[in-house]
Amino acid sequence: MSRNSPKTKEKAMNQIESLIGLAEGHRERELSRRYVEISRRIAKRMDLTIPSYLKRRFCKSCNTPYSYGSGIRLKNGLVTVKCSSCGNIRRLPYRTNR
Ligand SMILES: [Zn+2]
């Protein structure tokens, strides 16, 4: 029996989702960064991939949620997000529902 049963993974995924939610709602930047850090650690340990809709909500390089007044721009079908904390720029494809 593997400890990474589908049920355990589902639980971990819920945890990850709520941790990122907490991070976004938190006023203390340091603490919200910790929440993201913890959720990424859970994902790693459980061998889970954080889904893209969650991944695009925080900075990959410093774990700060983008809810901290980051510069979001739409350009040529790409969303450009600049992290307000470390200045890391990320480009994400912007998808519309056809
Ligand atoms: Zn950053």
Helices and strands, in order, run as HHHEEE
Number of helices: 3
Q: Portion of residues in helices?
A: 40-55%
Work out the number of β strands: 3
List the uncertain runs. none
Overall pLDDT metric: 89
Computed over alpha carbons, the radius of gyration is 15 Å
Class derived from helix and strand content: alpha+beta
How far apart are the termini? 43 Å
What can be said about the biggest beta sheet? 3 strands, antiparallel
Structure description:
- A three-stranded antiparallel sheet has the order 1-2-3, with no helix packed on it.
- It is 42% helix and 15% strand.
- The chain has one domain (6-93).
- By secondary structure, it is α+β, with helices and mostly antiparallel strands.
- A hairpin with a 2-residue loop joins strand 1 and strand 2 (78-82).
- The structure holds zinc ion.
The gist of it:
By secondary structure, the chain is α+β, with helices and mostly antiparallel strands.
Describe the SSE topology.
Elements: H1 6-25, H2 29-45, H3 52-55, E1 71-75, E2 78-82, E3 89-93
Antiparallel strand pairs: 1-2, 2-3
